[in-house]
Every structure is written in C-alpha cells, then in structure tokens.
C-alpha cells in the first residue's frame, strides 16, 4: 500500500477515534457528576487539542466543530451553547494544528517537538477563547440572541482553570506518546 494512502487511512481512523473520545468522555462526566463539572474540567476539549496537534488543522477543525454538536444530541451542551462551542472547539483544532505546522516550518529542526506542542497548545487555547468571544459578540449584536456577553469568556476561562491544567498535563504527554508509537510502528 502506498505511504500516502496508508497515511490518510491512519489519519481518518485516528480522527474518528478522537471524535468518539470527545463524545464518550463528556458523557461519562455527566453520568457521574453534575452538568457544571464539564464547565470546570472541559473534557470535550482534550481530544480536539490532541487531534489538532497530532493530525493537523484540517482534522482539528472537523473534530472540534462536530464534537459539541454531536454531544448536544445527548443533552449537553444545549442550543445556542452547542453552536458557540462548535466554533470555539473548531478554532482550538485549527490553531493547534496551524501553530504546530508553522513552528515546524519556521524552526525546522532547531526546536524540538515538545516545546512546539506546548506553544501550539497554549496559543490555540488563547485563540479559541478569542473566537468564543467573537461568536458571542456576533450572536448578541447581529442576531439579538440571548447569550452571555462576550466579556464573560474571561469568567469561563477562570472557571475552567482546573480543565486548563489537566489539558496542559495530559495533551502534550498523549501527543508525544502518539508520535513515539507512530515512529516505532513505521520504522
């Protein structure tokens, strides 16, 4: 099998796995905790960040956009928060993959993979929150929807500090393990 075909099959399979994880983990949190636990621990975000960094911006956007919409079929997040989160998580996936790609192109071999992962993760966290605020602004300003004001993004970021810490601890380690297993399997 040609390497390009194998690569696309691998990416599609792993992308489907990340989408499934992005659906299953929040369901478990809602089954065994309160709905507010999702706002604190941000379980939906983890697989999106991993997908963006590991698979690239294309898969990150798709998985990020679909994850909250599919989760909303099971009751949370509800409308219009599912749309807000769809754009926010799509931005996480986009910027995680884009930053990883750009850092690799700019620094070539001068910057090791681990710092690129951390920088991509942190920058995408910031950019996703900015997109969240922009979506809230558009919904309030142009569609007169009753959603939180854009400045509430800061409050939700503060509420989600435990989730941000979990992401900073888990995502880089998982991505490094994925790269290591992929290199071992391909070699």
How would you describe the overall organization of this protein?
The chain has 187 residues and is an all-alpha fold. It has one domain (3-186): Arp2/3 complex 21 kDa subunit ARPC3, CATH 1.10.1760.20. It contains 8 helices and no strands. Helix 5 (81-107) packs antiparallel against helix 6. It is globular, with a radius of gyration of 17 Å. 36% of the residues are buried.
Topology, element by element:
Blueprint: H1 3-32, H2 37-41, H3 43-55, H4 57-72, H5 81-107, H6 113-143, H7 152-159, H8 161-186
Helix pairs in contact: 1-3, 1-4, 3-4, 3-5, 3-8, 4-5, 5-6, 6-7, 6-8
Key structural traits:
187 residues, Arp2/3 complex 21 kDa subunit ARPC3, globular, mainly alpha
What spatial form do the alpha-carbon principal axes imply? globular
Q: Work out the strand percent.
A: under 5%
The biggest beta sheet reads: none
Helix-strand pattern: HHHHHHHH
Radius of gyration in whole Å, from Cα?
Answer: 17 Å
Low-pLDDT segments, ≥5 res: none
Short structural description:
With 187 residues, the protein is mostly helical.
